[in-house]
Amino acid sequence: MLKEHLRNSGHDVLLVREPGGAPLAERIRSILLSHEVEISPVAELLLFSAARAQLVRETIQPALESGTVVICDRFYDSTTAYQGAGRNFANSAWLDDFHRRVTDELEPDRTYLIDVPVSVASSRRTGRDDDADRMESGGNEFFKRVRAAYLDLADREPKRILVLDGTLSEEVLRAMIIADFDHQMNES
To answer: For position 136, what pLDDT does the model report?
Structure first.
């Protein structure tokens, strides 16, 4: 919906996802989301980061250099939350430095964190027709750590990360994001 809004406003827009968005990153995505092989926390962190490094160099940086607005569905905050806190692998200070190296210092201008209680997220995952991917099968304690890490990031970076109540309707969230994004664009 943000992509649509920006295109209608005359912007060139690229929407990418993580992991993915570049040929190598898409291959890594299939490995990361599969239940076929066991992946250790350090390997998982490195695979996500390898996919991100490729995405930044092949896709995001060239788009930004051409004046395109890039919207990324997830970025390194997800690694801090999932691998850092969820998997209890690394602290956020170490990960902050690591992310800067992986992305050649590229940082998001704005991050929208759509927050819901773990019980709500769990009920939304229940009943899906598709099988849960490896990342979605972490269990409630895992997701409590992930959510706490996201909220901690938002507390540490309130100018970059806007926390939105994910229990609100899609229409209300859409309006809030568009209003905030338009405000951010006018400020810069």
So the answer is: 65
Give the containing element (helix H, strand E) for 115: strand 111-115
* 173 touches 109 (CB < 8 A): no
**Sign, CA torsion 55/57/59/61:** positive
Q: Residue 184 above 70 pLDDT?
A: yes
CA distance 55 to 39: 21
- Residue 161, classed as helix, strand or coil, is strand
Number of CB atoms found within 10 A of residue 80's CB: 24
Tell me the C-alpha distance between 58 and 62, whole Å.
7
Sign of torsion over alpha carbons 151, 106, 49, 29: positive
Which tokens is 186 given? 């006018």
Locate the DSSP E strands across the chain.
13-17, 69-73, 111-115, 161-165
Residue carrying the six token digits 């929208």: 112
146 token code pair: 């992930």
* HSE-up of residue 58 (Cα within 13 Å, Cβ side): 14
pTM: 0.90
Residue 122 is predicted with a pLDDT of 80
Q: In angstroms, rounded to a whole number, what is the distance separating the alpha carbons of residues 69 and 32? A: 27
How many residues appear in the chain? Answer: 188
